[in-house]
Amino acid sequence: SKGEWATFMDKEIHEQPRAVAETLRERTDASGLLVLDELRIPAHVLREVDKIIVIACGTSAYAGQVARYAIEHWCRIPCEVELASEFRYRDPIVSQKTLIVAISQSGETMDTIQAIRHAREQGAKVLAIVNTPGSTIAREADAVLVTHAGREIAVASTKAFTAQVTACYILGLYLAQVRGNKYGDEIADYLAKLSEVPAKMERLLGQLDPVVEVAHELAHSASSFIFIGRHVGFPVALEGALKLKEIAYVHAEGFAAGELKHGPIALVESGVPVVVIVPTPRRPELHRKVVSTIQEVRARGARTIVIAEEGDASVEAWADTLVRVPQTPTLYMPLLTVIPLQVLAAQVATDLGYDVDQPRNLAKSVTVE
Ligand code: F6R
């Protein structure tokens, strides 16, 4: 039941600290190393992997895009992310050394099922990250990493996304451990920082009034939103735009911050809301560029909504709305920065009087191709 919440989506947004904590639980031994007995693919097979292809649809594919940054950085294995509905049709190069990572909340998405079958026919091993253990994808995969988000009822995915991203970090760190890319104490340190995220999510959920206010302000006036991000902020921007489209029926597009000048900046005119996900100032090479993008859109009259780390003073002058997120390592930032975007979409949809949990034309699991 929804309990105290107006919608399942609201409830599920607030269940994210728990979804992440549950997904992390009981996956380490006393020394802080990962133990994934459930994985069922032997370590020697994982050591041989020379390419990873993540296959998924929609929000789950955006979780995969976040995963790519972590997996390539930690494990030095080339990692591609492909929409399941496109995968088969490009004659993908798949071998016995390819690890397919299929990500699906429902485990019943037909596009993803068909892509898995195609990859397995060519000898690839398939590891499924699913929220539904008995599902078709879980049964057909060689190995399963279960996300413990609990049942997700709202059509728009929220807690399943953050649980998927968490599972991807676990997978990335496990591969780094098994393949010897990282020492045990480094793995333990990465995991310790990850386990601090649920408390940070909890705190963040308590400081989102600016998001609610800007949603009230723009719900009836803005006809289009732009979301921009760089590095792991880029898939978060895509996810923010998808949420707004699917539940509030407002046109929205996500762009890589660096791509704006190659065309999309032409869309920015007076009053257009631009949501910017700002990297930590501790990564100056990323941060500096995103701040200058905010200045550029502001100079063209954009209504800026800036998601930035606590303590980052450099953005204050350029933000019409400023949303603060707790500090965390760059690769983990999507677990936090996505939350204000979920709340923005839910609040705009609510203010417009729509059924947030059951948007028109959409089903919770898409069992047709
Ligand atoms: C968006 C959303 C969809 C799903 C997509 C894949 O909020 O929920 O984009 O992410 O249909 O579904 P699963 O993860 O069940 O394969």
TrEMBL record:
For biological process, the GO terms are: carbohydrate metabolic process; fructose 6-phosphate metabolic process; protein N-linked glycosylation; UDP-N-acetylglucosamine metabolic process
- For this UniProt record, give its keywords in alphabetical order, as a comma-separated list: Aminotransferase, Cytoplasm, Glutamine amidotransferase, Repeat, Transferase
Give the record's GO CC terms: cytosol
**What is its subcellular localisation?**
Cytoplasm
List, in alphabetical order, the Gene Ontology terms for molecular function in this entry.
carbohydrate derivative binding; glutamine-fructose-6-phosphate transaminase (isomerizing) activity
Taxonomically, the superkingdom here is Bacteria
According to its UniProt entry, what is the function of this protein?
Catalyzes the first step in hexosamine metabolism, converting fructose-6P into glucosamine-6P using glutamine as a nitrogen source.
Per its record, how is this protein called by name?
A: Glutamine--fructose-6-phosphate aminotransferase [isomerizing]
**Organism, as annotated:** Nanchangia anserum
The root-end lineage is: Bacteria, Bacillati, Actinomycetota, Actinomycetes, Actinomycetales
